[in-house]
Structures
1.
Amino acid sequence: MRAVVTGGAGFLGSYLCERLVERDWEVICMDNFLTGSPRNVEHLVGRPNFKIVECDLTGFVHVPGEVALVMHFASAASPADYLRYPIETLRVGSIGTLHALGLAREKGARFVLASTSEVYGDPLEHPQKETYWGNVNPVGPRSVYDEAKRFAESLTTAYRESRGADTGIVRIFNTYGPRMRPFDGRAIPTFIRQALRGEPITVTGDGTQTRSICYVDDTVDGILALAFGDFPGPVNIGNPDEMTMADLAKLIRELAGSDSPIEFVDRPADDPRVRRPDTTVAAEHLGWRPRVPAEEGLRRTIEWFRAELGVLSRR
Ligand code: NAD
């Protein structure tokens, strides 16, 4: 069984490659290393069933031989990244998704789209169910990501409805864990980095906005449950354990054994006020529920960052 993982050298993609390799799948990891790095999968290089191919999904894409599964994860994902690469993000969400779907259809493979809770925008419904259509500003700065993913969902659905493609859409909520980049701009790596270095922990706005954070092992379990079945989704995968950003900052500070002060800074435009998945569909259709409590997942992540930042500071 062969799988193609686009964005396979990124944070989530690298775990998917790893888990598929462990299950004896032959894995082709396709990435242009825009926001990911071969370092994330270097432990897989040399395994006979793992291959890494440097390629831009928005260009010509060809994979010889049979493919049973295409996991489409290529896309900048952190706000800092997609604001730095706005056109690239729109291109990979649109043209890249078209190419990945074309590949899946040509091979008769199952196709899994990595969508996002950001399709719900700044939600007017809480928690967010898959039936909610979202509240996205189409010309706001975040639209390059949100609208690219909404378009990708539409394209995936059209391939399913009009071309008979076997597709699944997963709406991933904030996921964290080892291999996130310390400077990727997302809240958890930023807070951990600041806490470990004794720098002020910068919380945006007044810190009352909420997020629901899911440990990477749980997220990957949910994604694979979708990949190995035939459920079309969309399905929310995330941990409904919601907390304010101020509380998250305090928890990370405590777990890191840090005495960093908490500093409130400007909130970015169109930043969602609340975020919590309704995971009923995932439980009913995939038998999935998150298992790792925030304290446990954050502890593991902090230890990884401690080692990672130690390496960085010696360079
Ligand atoms: P990431 O930035 O670590 O990984 C994305 C990967 O895609 C990178 O390795 C990057 O180099 C690659 N890529 C980007 N453009 C490409 C192109 N044109 N051709 C080939 N490769 C390209 O981000 P991540 O957190 O691992 O996110 C992976 C996917 O999951 C994304 O599609 C993202 O939207 C989705 N997602 C992630 C989260 C999360 O919390 N991590 C939440 C919701 C959705």
Note: Residues 2-175+214-237 form a domain with the Rossmann fold fold (CATH 3.40.50.720).
2.
Amino acid sequence: MNSCLFCKISAGELPADKLYEDENAIVIRDINPQSPHHFLAIPKKHYPAVHDIPQNEMPPLFAGLMNAVCQALNSSGLHNAGYRLVINSGDTAGQTVPHLHIHILGGRQLEWPPG
Ligand code: 5GP
Ligand code: ZN
């Protein structure tokens, strides 16, 4: 049995506030937002991190994932306002859900460098 949180949300087995969905990916609102707009773009296929994706699967996976990111950017207006895309990988980067996802952050002035 797959106990992965984002696999369950992707499969519709757990609820989420969805902005976008297609056969490859979903974009949901983060349950604990760190900015006024905080979305998560999640590929439906399970990989813990980018370095786990086989080379031949990289192009279609990222094409689908980045399309979902752009759909959410356009529908939320962040494409005009500015935004940040973040992938946390591993404990030291603060990854808490081991299913690859891209954070989409916006709606406030974002600091650099990040903490
Ligand atoms: P990570 O820490 O792995 O980079 O990001 C995981 C993100 O998932 C966190 O920002 C956290 O708030 C979010 N998250 C954790 N559980 C849930 C959930 O059940 N639903 C939603 N929508 N977001 C979640
Ligand atoms: Zn998963």
Note: The pocket of zinc ion (ligand 2) is lined by residues 4, 6-7, 46, 99 (CB under 6 Å).
3.
Amino acid sequence: MEIIIRPSPEECASIGGRIIANLIKGKPDAVLGLATGSTPMPLYCELARMHEDEGLSFSEITTFNLDEYIGLSGDHPCSYQYFMNKELFSRIDIRADSTHIPNGEADDIESECLGYEQAIRSSGGIDLQVLGIGSDGHIGFNEPGSSLASRTRIKTLTGKTIEDNARFFDNLNQVPRHCITMGVGTIMDSVSLILYAFGERKADIISKAVEGPVSAMVPASILQLHPRVRVIVDEAAASKLTNIDYYKEVYVNKPDWQE
Ligand code: PGA
């Protein structure tokens, strides 16, 4: 794991923007895995800026989002489809039919999940997956106890996640209890990953995910077994890491060729 600690979410976003721009430069038809929530928003602002100011094109890119609430239509303001259209897709030149988000209104959830896995495989697989982390350690909506080999499927949200996400809804009772999420195994198939976390609220779980034991009770800890993961965090989210000075030293002394 490469742990990158920067003073602000904006600086973290600019590193992610550069990584994605480099990926697209080498592979204009790359496949990106995308996340929702407040964490990836600075990255999406940066990608929109790079599109606007630097001509970064997403015209051949394919995307797959991690998850969607069950029961919300794509035009519901709290659906992840709505979020992605607003925060990213409408601000760049991506083709709408190249973007994928699980259909939370599918009649047959099981075949929706199988179809989603199949679509990822048919695209050639995800080159770079962007992740946030839940305060309970979830990636996607893989809550504690999820199989570390799981594939796209229905999950029940924990009380903690419902509480955390209630801020996006009018009240707690409106938060859907179920979702479709890529599995931990699906996420681990990605060629490379960026895990973002910002703020003191994430400091505990970042220390468990990065420096604690690999455990299904902290699904993000499985990333320790992936060969190409960057954990990009601000100072507040990094504040409970034991090896913080070492991570900073590694970053500052990184040979140019390694970028
Ligand atoms: P947040 O959520 O970005 O809104 O903190 C992260 C997550 O639940 O994965």
Note: The pocket of 2-phosphoglycolic acid is lined by residues 37-39, 132-134 (CB under 6 Å).
4.
Amino acid sequence: MGTTRTQVGIIGAGPAGLLLAQILDKAGISTVILERRDRSYVEGRIRAGVLEQGTVDLMRAAGVGERLDREGLIHKGIYFSVDDVRTQIDLEELTGGRHVVVYGQTEVTKDLIAARLAAGGDLRFDCVDVTLHDVESDKPRLTYVSGDSEHEVVCDFIAGCDGFHGPSRQALPASLLKVYERVYPFGWLGILAQAPPVADELIYSRHPRGFALYSMRSMKVVRHYIQCLPDTDLEDWPDDRVWDELRLRLAPQDQHLLQTGKVFEKSVTPMRSFVAEPMRFGRLFLAGDAGHIVPPTGAKGLNLAASDVHYLSRALMAFYAENSEAGLDTYSETALARIWKAQRFSWWMTSMLHNFGPADDFDTRVRGAELAYVLSSRAAMTSLAENYVGLPF
Ligand code: FAS
Ligand code: PHB
């Protein structure tokens, strides 16, 4: 068996694992990333689209902000379309100048992989059966199979950045692990298409036919979503039907703004809120989707992965630079404090904007009143804006 010795073994080459490795590498801390899929699969995954300022700052500090600064779209506000009225939430005005940047997760991942490889980082794809060993010892190990040979990575720490379906969370004993979960009765059918955006900023639409989101990746590529049943069969949704539904869920005076184009990606994302506590066990630390999932209504998933990496990288740097374990000992508590605030915001946005069906008319009315209040109150709009641009790390 081939053995590698490193300081931090990272499972997963998504945004969490790649950003963590990039930051630690710049601090002179050695890492090995073990990724199950191949590079093209990882770079081709279509996911998030909105970066908080904190995430942008972290990318810049990690030395991977150049293309993001060049190609990212600064968005100073977002729109809500409710009862045929489109209202702008002026994020910058309400938060004293803060905004978000529209830059696809695929681009974030490509930039981070390129930086890792350019730096000679140890980034291994096609790692099968990654298994965690001795996580309670001071020499935890990872084993995996590549091709037909077994490999071992001996490290000081393991960062579980392996997403919702990875093995890291399973390494916490059932007696210690507590999970909190809410599954929503709908999903999002998303398309990527070659078409101009509907408006200059994102439109979140609450409509009797169901929620819709009109987003973008550039001025020539759009990313739109419609609320759908969680088990929606894409066969039932040819492109024309998707475009028609997107048009119907806009205010009448905006429907002419929707331009169709060639759809080159279509998928259904289920909706859940999920938190695993604690996010540490021995020398294993969870970060990103391995520890939590949010409904994408608040554009928080990728950004929470970034804040986990911010806390974990600082803790690891303090350990190696000052032999201090304080950051490691408080990592789970610190990360979870911000995670739960993002969970609340994502749940709140999802509850306000989606159609939950006829189950409970009272709740439907309350949700409508909540949104009407937000759109009529500067105080409420300010609260929404400061959560949307991202609470401080
Ligand atoms: P990721 O899941 O991105 O990465 C985990 C990595 O670990 C993957 O590369 C995986 O292949 C690897 N891995 C898994 N098991 C492994 C194993 N056994 N061995 C080795 N490697 C393993 N967020 C938003 O903000 N907005 C959105 O619109 C949005 N849309 C989404 C749509 C979908 C379909 C999904 C699934 C998520 C979406 N998200 C969205 C959330 C998403 O962006 C995540 O928050 C983000 O990818 C989190 O990054 P990571 O924690 O790195 O996890
Ligand atoms: C996206 O562009 O993919 C996107 C934007 C905002 C969200 C969710 C997804 O809230």
Note: The mean pLDDT is 97.
